[in-house]
């Protein structure tokens, strides 16, 4: 009984720390929510609900470009996520289970690209995309982001934990490598694939610099670029600006709430496999 009571101070301190940390990170979001429900300027900002209104959101949805920005972000994010998971999973399987000359060297060079900032490769990638005629197209927004070394590394660490005897049994039964990949490896990698999908979609949704270069017309802009560059009434109205910001936050919140369980399980599984 005394041992149980002695743990209360430490548990209370941990819960207080967790609560204060959560409030610290949630406070800016709550302020954005409140500002988006007001028609006042920032200097007149107050937390009183007396002046709350949905007028800012009505103006956002009345703007014909905002739904197009949202649709572009959803399409580009969905395509990038699906193709990235597929390409990274294929590469991870090859690096983890197949033997070919230069495998370890190729994987080391792939990991070395993690040290390169995106700004270092931005100009050559843009020049290649421009030469291929992908500027101001969905292909230009999607294809350069189809794969990444982080995803290959994450999935490779998990696939290495799959017993080789399981794959050898499938080969003895006459299954091809593609059949083994689709019927054996793929079902076992759903959790790390969910982790990679969440990271990829969030990164694509929040991406700004590359869509800013690729989207030359207003119809091709994603939501983040549209918020920053479109000269509308929202640029002078902080309530309208924060309403658009809340609109951009909504898909991320839905994604986190809906897939939180799979995200945690996938991260833990990857850590145990590593």
From TrEMBL:
Keyword Protein biosynthesis assigned: no
UniProt protein name: Carbohydrate ABC transporter permease
Signal peptide interval: none
Key words, A-Z: Cell membrane, Membrane, Transmembrane, Transmembrane helix, Transport
Annotated TM spans: 12-37, 74-95, 107-129, 141-159, 180-205, 238-259
Membrane topology category: Multi-pass membrane protein
Coiled coil region boundaries: none
Family that this chain belongs to: Belongs to the binding-protein-dependent transport system permease family.
Chief subcellular location: membrane
InterPro entries noted in UniProt: MetI-like, MetI-like_sf
PANTHER family: ABC TRANSPORTER PERMEASE PROTEIN MG189-RELATED, ABC TRANSPORTER PERMEASE PROTEIN MG189-RELATED-RELATED
Subcellular location(s) per record: Cell membrane
UniProt xrefs under Gene3D superfamilies: MetI-like (1.10.3720.10)
Native organism: Kribbella sancticallisti
């Amino acid at each position: 009984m005394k041992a149980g009571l002695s743990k209360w101070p430490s548990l209370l301190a941990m819960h207080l720390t967790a609560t204060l940390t959560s409030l610290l990170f949630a406070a800016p979001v709550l302020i954005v929510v409140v500002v988006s429900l007001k028609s006042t300027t920032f200097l007149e900002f107050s937390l009183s609900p007396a002046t709350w209104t949905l007028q800012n959101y009505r103006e956002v949805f009345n703007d014909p470009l905002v739904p197009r920005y949202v649709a572009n972000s959803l399409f580009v994010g969905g395509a990038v996520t699906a193709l990235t998971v597929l390409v990274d999973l294929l590469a991870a399987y090859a690096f983890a289970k197949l033997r070919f000359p230069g495998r370890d060297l190729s994987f080391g060079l792939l990991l070395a690209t993690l040290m390169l900032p995106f700004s270092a490769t931005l100009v050559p990638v843009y020049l290649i995309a421009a030469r291929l005629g992908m500027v101001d197209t969905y292909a230009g927004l999607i294809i350069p982001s189809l794969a990444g070394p982080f995803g290959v590394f994450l999935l490779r660490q998990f696939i290495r934990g799959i017993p080789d005897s399981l794959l050898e049994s499938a080969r003895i039964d006459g299954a091809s490598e593609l059949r083994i990949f689709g019927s054996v490896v793929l079902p076992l990698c759903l959790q790390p694939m969910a982790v990679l999908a969440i990271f990829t979609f969030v990164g694509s949704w929040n991406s700004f610099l590359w869509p800013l270069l690729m989207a030359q017309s207003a119809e091709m802009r994603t939501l983040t670029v549209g918020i920053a560059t479109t000269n509308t009434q929202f640029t002078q109205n902080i309530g309208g600006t924060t309403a658009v910001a809340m609109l951009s936050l909504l898909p991320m919140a839905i994604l986190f709430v809906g897939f939180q369980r799979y995200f945690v399980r996938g991260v833990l599984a990857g850590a145990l496999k590593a």
